[in-house]
Structures are given as structure tokens and as C-alpha cells.
Amino acid sequence: MMTNLFSIFDPSTNIFNMSINWLSTTLGIMFIPMMFWFIPNRYMYMWNLIFNKLHLEFKILLNQDKMKGYTFLFIMLFCLVLFNNFLGLFPHIFTSTSHMIMTLSLSLPMWLSFMLFGWINNSQNMFSHLIPQGTPLILMPFMVLIETISNIIRPGTLAIRLTANMIAGHLLMNLLGSTGTKMSNYLMIILIFTQFLLLTLELAVSIIQSYVITILSTLYSSEVN
């Protein structure tokens, strides 16, 4: 039972026992609107509206003029995580964001680039973030230690938050679905309704978690300027 429960997170396939399921990470490319449409359709209009809203919000968070041109990178991060979260809700599609190797591969390089950029180009500002304004002199060593640990664990918290939220919902839906064959017709109706509610909740979680990891990454990048 436990093996079958976690088999939905197994990236390997029956084809030479290779981890081909990771290829599902690139399926989101199919959802990007093609730019050769002669007449803009509703689908392209929807994505343009989303991109413009995200661009305006990230531009405000990136309060330095020299960083406002990098909003495109964070929008692409949002799309990548969103596509993988959303596609994982469909049957027989592997959810790559439910693995730490995927989420940590996104968060760790970003965090390292932010830290290197900040300490090399703006060391004084980075030191000032270690001691909040108004901190008593006796508490300064402790605040430096706390802020340092807080900065170090940031990529881990980003990765674990996304992975845990993806795993939790998928496990619950799979666990409830595996009990359907043992239920009566009356309980089956209740189960289907419950699964529909869970699927709606997971859809909201997939969008929210994509937004959260992007917003936090944007805030972390704004601190190094």
C-alpha cells in the first residue's frame, strides 16, 4: 500500500528503467501562446494580461531602476513552476515540483547569484541587513547570527515549501482514490464530491505556490541592491 501510494512520485519508467518522466517538466512550453497568430485570440490576451500584472508588481518590488529589467526572469520562473504544478494535477503526468532535486535546483542557484551579486557589488548594504536598525548593542552579535542563519536557509525553505505543498495534496487525493473500490454507491458519490473539492483546492494551491516562490525570490533579490 505504501509503495503504491508513493509510486506517483517515481520519475523512472518501464523503458530501460530510465527517469524519462522528468521530460514532463518541458510540457509547459505547449501552453505558451504562439506569436504567429494574425489575430490576437482570448488565450493570448489572457497571458498578456497576466504578464503585465506580474511585471508591474515585480517592478514595484524591485525598487532599484537597474533591476527593473529583470522582471522577465521572475515571470518565467512563475510560469515554469505554475505549468509543472498544474500539469501534475492530470492523471499519469509526473509532478517534477514534488521533488527536492527540482525545487532546490531552482532556488539554490538563484540564492547563490543574489548573494554573490550583493556581497561583491554592495557589501556595505549586505552588512547593514545583518543588524536591523535600532538593535541594542548587546544583542547585535545574536542578531548577526540569526540573520546569517536566516539567509543561509532561504533556498531550503523555498524548496521545501513548494515540495511539501505539492506532495501533501497529491498523497491525499491518491489515498482517497485508492479506497473507492471498497465503498458503496452512496459513499462513492460523497468520495467523488470530496475529490472534486480537493482538486479545486489543489488547483488553487498550484497557483498560490507558484506566486509565493516568485514573490519571495523577488524580495530576496531586492535586498541585495
Automatic annotation (TrEMBL):
CDD domains: ATP-synt_Fo_a_6. Belongs to the ATPase A chain family. Mitochondrial membrane ATP synthase (F(1)F(0) ATP synthase or Complex V) produces ATP from ADP in the presence of a proton gradient across the membrane which is generated by electron transport complexes of the respiratory chain. F-type ATPases consist of two structural domains, F(1) - containing the extramembraneous catalytic core and F(0) - containing the membrane proton channel, linked together by a central stalk and a peripheral stalk. During catalysis, ATP synthesis in the catalytic domain of F(1) is coupled via a rotary mechanism of the central stalk subunits to proton translocation. It is a multi-pass membrane protein. F-type ATPases have 2 components, CF(1) - the catalytic core - and CF(0) - the membrane proton channel. CF(1) has five subunits: alpha(3), beta(3), gamma(1), delta(1), epsilon(1). CF(0) has three main subunits: a, b and c. Keywords: ATP synthesis, CF(0), Hydrogen ion transport, Ion transport, Membrane, Mitochondrion, Transmembrane, Transmembrane helix, Transport. NCBIfam families: ATP_synt_6_or_A. This is ATP synthase subunit a. GO terms for cellular component: mitochondrial inner membrane; proton-transporting ATP synthase complex. GO terms for molecular function: proton-transporting ATP synthase activity, rotational mechanism. It comes from Eumeta variegata. The keyword Transport applies.
